[in-house]
Amino acid sequence: MDFERELAESHHYAVFKNGVGGVDRASMLVRRPERHREEEYAGHGLWVDTDKLYRLDSGRDWNDDYRALTEAEARELRQQIDTGWATAWNHHVISADGTPFAVVVSAKDPKWGAGPYRIGRHEHRGHGRTDLLDRVPDEPTWSVEDVQPAAAIEALVRMEERKREDPWYSGGYAVFDTLIDVLDLDSAYAVVPRPGPEHEFTARLSEQEARRLTALIGLRRAKQQAGPVAGHQYFALFIRTEDAVDPRNAHSVIRSTVDSWPQKWEVFLRQGEWLPAVRPSDRTLLPLAAADLDAVTAALMSREHRYLKVRSRETGPVALLRLTGTTEESAVDLGWEPSDVLTRLPGERSWFVGEVDEQGVERLRYTSALQGRSVRFAKDEYRYFAVFPSHALDLSQAVLVIRRRDEAEEKFAGPAGWVPVGPGEEVGRAYPGRFLPISHAEMERLIS
């Protein structure tokens, strides 16, 4: 069931070449610890950033395919990857003055012509070509030791611990079950100000890491304890994982039926009122118990403004709404106008609703205004643009006015009037994504 996917602690996927199959045929193990993050298991306890699933979903890597894994399959594939490294590669630890600073692997079969590779989180896919082994004889303070894979992993852990001795890592300590887990912050089971005697394996954290990891651990616990309330599973939605430390930070609440098929998703409007929705695909979800549900919905209803995005499964965007109490307005160009979209909603079976946070609504309004105005003013002899220090919909915030005619570009320079934009000024690069087409009348008001 859809809602059960949201209760999984992490989502693991196997990537295949030439068709989906069993785990033994997989070419990659990928996880999504958060909705906007993908990581590939690179072996040696390391998870590294990737965009493989995005590339597959978008059709860029059309020769490959993937499927979701059970927890048992994910463990099996991880072991398979580790066994591949242990079987085919020699492991070496390189030290300077007796302190390890690199783990390098070389192929056991020289006919491969592959490697040597340096192992590390910041190498491409966890391993990058290196000449460190060749340089050892010429470096008097260096030494190299041939080791078993377990010893190589321990060396990686010690290097990570030394890196984290920097004062930057002052946000507390992550606590782990095993030594190898230190290489994977997401595997921590607690964040503490100071480790106690019972905390055998720890790693220092930056303040940002501590906030994110605290929220991630809270999400895991909430998923473990989640249960339906009156036939529904409720979720709070967050843009950032670290915001989930307090459920009242949620910008929306959704729910799914648990005993019916197909499942029905709805978004909270006000007490006793829920609107049709779809399963969210790009947000952090926190399962809610009954007590938290009341607190979060009360926080939503206390806000001065709330924003709803209405879409049609058949035709796409319908409206962007602002609710002030029970007053509804729709975004129109740069402003808001009274509307009755929610009144019409019950009669439109293809429509569904999602709640948007303030930053998201500004981006949506800017994109809509940009598209509409680009079309409206495209055939004007001069095309005028207001330039803003950031995304803006208030013309009074413009810092520059530009006009274009064919390939010529000019800026308004006060008493000097319109002057050419110099080739070295690079206005487009200085204000990327901050141009808004304006009318001749709007231009005159801005320069007057």
Key attributes of the depicted protein:
448 residues; five-stranded antiparallel sheet; 11 helices
Description:
By secondary structure, the chain is an alpha+beta fold. The chain contains 11 helices and 28 strands. The protein has a 5-stranded antiparallel β-sheet with strand order 4-3-2-1-5. The longest helix is centred in the middle third of the chain and has 19 residues.
Give the secondary structure arrangement, pairings included.
Blueprint: H1 2-6, E1 11-17, E2 28-34, E3 37-43, E4 46-49, H2 52-57, E5 64-68, H3 71-88, E6 89-96, E7 99-107, E8 117-119, E9 127-129, H4 132-135, E10 142-147, H5 149-163, E11 172-176, E12 190-192, E13 201-205, H6 207-225, E14 232-238, E15 252-257, E16 265-270, E17 273-276, E18 284-288, H7 290-301, E19 306-312, E20 316-324, E21 327-332, E22 335-338, H8 341-344, E23 351-356, H9 358-376, E24 383-387, E25 400-405, E26 408-412, E27 418-420, H10 427-430, E28 435-438, H11 440-447
Antiparallel strand pairs: 1-2, 1-5, 2-3, 3-4, 6-7, 6-10, 7-8, 8-9, 11-12, 11-13, 14-15, 14-18, 15-16, 16-17, 19-20, 19-23, 20-21, 21-22, 24-25, 24-28, 25-26, 26-27
Structural class of the secondary elements? alpha+beta
How much is the average pLDDT? Answer: 90
Largest sheet: 5 strands, antiparallel
Shape: globular
Q: Can you list the strand order of the major beta sheet? A: 4-3-2-1-5
Number of helices: 11
- Strands, count: 28
Rounded radius of gyration (Å):
28 Å
Beta fraction of the residues?
A: 25-35%
N- to C-terminal separation? 61 Å
| Low-confidence residue ranges | none
